[in-house]
Design goal:
Blueprint: E1 6-8, E2 14-17, E3 20-21, H1 27-37, E4 43-44, H2 46-54, H3 62-77, E5 83-86, E6 91-94, H4 99-116, H5 120-132, H6 145-171, H7 175-188, H8 193-205, H9 209-227, H10 233-243
Length: 268
């Protein structure tokens, strides 16, 4: 019977056997393992694996390194753990899944179902549970073009979920709580317009219309200085509606801040 190992990638790669962390070797060896984990039991050709971990700067002795790392991983996994094998056409890891990622997806599916049922509070709680699974950047510290691309992709997915959670909190009237979090988010991502729009809306709904206009103007200046352009149409439209004191701004959020398709449906 195969021994159960829990795999985590929402932060540094971690393997837990009966709650005890399994030593997985040096960074490149861990990167080989992380890349194969993403394939869900499918095989990866040797050349593709080398490209994924080393990219264009491949050392002359890379074949020896791959063999060394595969041997090291097999020892770490043990005889009763997941199987890392050569299939004749590539390397394949079976009997393993990225557990924290699977749990996050399930929590977000449940959050979407709760939101669609009108239970915004439960949707926010479930999204918060999904967020709590993160321990750092995705596959933090592991080298190679494949994992660098995954880190960028998951940073964007994480941001979309965070924005959706804050949108739900604004819809529940938790303006002060959202303002504090959105101020930090805007400071960390000063050119991202959706957090600015949510901040402006939370301030306006919380009775701070002057602060909402100041937040918009600060963002407009940042965008102009960095990009030589005006804010996008969704943020400009929100600003214009605040100037008109549009009464519908006190209603739902979905049509105010320019949600994209990726923010409307799928569990990231």
């Amino acid at each position: 019977m195969a021994e159960t190992i829990r795999w985590e990638l929402l932060g540094p790669l971690r393997a837990l056997r009966a709650g005890v962390e399994v030593p997985l070797g040096p960074p490149k060896q861990r990167a080989v393992l992380a890349v194969l984990l993403h394939l869900d039991g499918r095989s990866m050709a040797y050349e593709s694996l080398v490209d994924a971990v080393w990219g264009p700067e491949t050392p002359v002795h890379v074949r020896n390194l791959v063999q060394k790392y595969v041997s090291g991983l097999r020892r770490a996994l043990g005889q009763d753990g997941p199987r890392l094998e050569w299939t004749g056409s590539g390397y394949r890891l079976t009997g393993a899944r990225i557990d924290d990622l699977c749990e996050r997806r399930e929590l977000l599916r449940s959050a979407i179902a709760a939101r669609e049922a009108g239970d915004l509070r439960r949707a926010g709680e479930l999204a918060g549970e999904a967020e709590s699974l993160w321990r750092g950047e995705y596959a933090e510290g592991l080298p190679g073009p494949y994992l660098e691309a995954e880190r960028r992709r998951w940073a964007e997915k994480r941001m979309l979920v965070l924005e959706a959670r804050l949108e739900g909190a604004i819809a529940q009237g938790r303006y002060d709580e959202c303002v504090h979090e959105l101020v930090r988010l805007v400071a960390a991502h000063p050119l991202r317009e959706r957090p600015v729009a949510l901040l402006v809306l939370a301030l306006y709904r919380g009775g701070r219309s002057s602060d909402a206009l100041v937040a918009y103007e600060e963002a407009r200046h940042r965008i102009a200085d960095a990009m030589g352009a005006d804010p996008g149409p969704a943020l400009r439209a929100l600003h214009e509606r605040i100037l008109r004191q549009d009464p519908t701004l006190l209603g739902g959020v979905a049509d105010m801040v320019g949600r994209g398709p990726a923010q409307r449906g799928s569990a990231a």
